[in-house]
Amino acid sequence: MLIESMRPSKPDIEEWKRKSKWFRAHGSSREHERHVENAERALVRFGSTKTYCGVSWGKDSVVVADIVTRLAPEIPLVWVRVSPIENPDCFLVRDAFLSLHDRVNYHEIVVQYDSGSDEGTGRLSSGFRQAASRFGTRYISGVRGDESASRSRRVAHWGENTKNTCAPLARWSAVDVFAYSLTRGLPIAPAYACLVNGLLDPCKIRIATLGGERGTGHGRASWEWRYYPQEMEKLFPNDRRQR
Questions:
Q1: Domain for residue 192, yes or no?
Q2: DSSP per position, 176-213
Q3: Chain centre to alpha carbon of residue 59
C-alpha cells in the first residue's frame, strides 16, 4: 500500500487512486497471474547457491524481495546504498517491508557519494563488488525488459536467467509491478504518487538516490526540487539550476 506522506498534493493523491484502480484490476487478470508464475519458476530454477538479491526499495525491487522472501528466504537481500543521497522514501519502504516478514536475510552496504563523478559507476560498482565477495557472484535483480531496448534484447535472447544472473521480472510491465504490490499489501513509496497534479505517469518514476548526474534527465531534477526541497537544499546547496 502507498505509504502516507505529506509530499504528494491532494490532486496527486486523487490521480494515484485512479491509477490504483487500474493496477488492481490488472492484478486479477490471467496475464498477470502468468507473469507471477513465470517469475516464481525462474527464481526456483536459478537456485540459491552463492546468490544474493539486490534491492533498492523502489517498486521493482520490493516485488523481487517479496518473491525471494516467500520462496527462498535464505537468499540475502542486499541494499547497496549511496550515502547521503538516498531518497528518504526508500528508508520508509525498507522498514515497512521488513516489518511484514518474520524471516528476512537482510544486509546493507554503504558507499559514499562523490560529486566528482556519476554515482552509478565507481561507487555503486565498488558496493556490488563487496556484495559479491560476501554473498556470492550469482545475482538476482528487479530489472525489466521494457525499461530499455538493450534489456529487451537481453530478455529476448536469454530469458529470465543466465548462468550468474536472474531477472524474475524480465517480462513484466510496470503495471504488473504495481498490481502485484497493491494486491498483496506491499509498501509503495510515496514518491510514486508525486505526479505533478496528474501530469506524470507513476510507471515512469524512478527512485533510489537524489541529485547527481543520474538525476538530471527527463525533468527529474525539477521533480526532485519540487517534492524534496529540504533534502535537495541540504545535499546540493550550491545547485540553483533546477529550483
A1: yes
A2: HHHHHHHHTT--B-GGGG--TTTTS-GGG---SB-SSG
A3: 4
Among 13-17, 73-77, 112-116, 221-225, where is mean pLDDT lowest? 112-116
For 3, which DSSP code?
P
**Residue 204 domain-assigned?**
yes
CATH of the domain at 39: 3.40.50.620
| Domain housing 60 | 10-209
User: How many structural domains does the chain have?
Assistant: 1
User: Which residues are registered as beta bridge partners of 77?
Assistant: 53, 106
In a domain, 221, yes or no: no
Long-range contacts of 214-221, Cβ-Cβ distance < 8 Å, separation of 24 or more: 214/118, 214/119, 214/120, 216/242
Beta bridge partners of 108: 79
| Average pLDDT of span 33-42 | 96
Q: Which one has a higher pLDDT value, 76 or 154?
A: 76
33 domain-assigned: yes
Amino acid at 97: F
- Contacting residues for 49 by C-beta, under 8 A, at least 6 apart: 136, 138
Q: What is the pLDDT of residues 148-202, one digit of tens each?
A: 556 566 666 667 888 899 999 999 999 999 999 999 999 999 999 999 999 999 9
Q: What is the pTM of this model?
A: 0.90
